[in-house]
Amino acid sequence: xxxxxxxxxxxxxxxxxxxxxxxxxxxxxxxxxxxxxxxxxxxxxxxxxxxxxxxxxxxxxxxxxxxxxxxxxxxxxxxxxxxxxxxxxxxxxxxxxxxxxxxxxxxxxxxxxxxxxxxxxxxxxxxxxxxxxxxxxxxxxxxxxxxxxxxxxxxxxxxxxxxxxxxxxxxxxxxxxxxxxxx
Length: 183
Fold this sequence. Notes:
Elements: E1 5-8, H1 34-42, E2 47-53, H2 64-80, E3 87-91, H3 107-116, E4 124-127, H4 130-139, E5 142-146, H5 151-160, E6 167-168, H6 171-179
Parallel strand pairs: 1-2, 1-4, 2-3, 4-5, 5-6
Helix pairs in contact: 1-6
């Protein structure tokens, strides 16, 4: 039996989702309650893994090195606040590239499963977009849509198409649902 994991999208879940992409640490702003949620997760036995599409790299807006530096700073701030992120996987490709790693495709999750022996059936994916929900369903994990970032508009679209998946106001609400065994 593999490990349990909680996969988190980054933009719109942990930090404010910018229409022009997060291109530097100065543009990275934690969402309210995100650090509290990550602190609660740190006390659990779940692996905490960020899976994020970062097409700004392919668009020439930011380098992979800068994205890695932003992630290192994010991990440092999360750690300083008592939280934990065990790994980050990102897709650097453009949406038109049709790569295997851009969510909703499962490449990022499969890489994490190889690295950490993750049991998807006992794991969760928390995101603010239907691509996160679709990725969770593709790997057999349980999705939770948060209403931060693009979540409210995505939720309305999902409801209109009769998709009914667990929803939370924000990352803290999703984490609390999971830790209480409500999902």
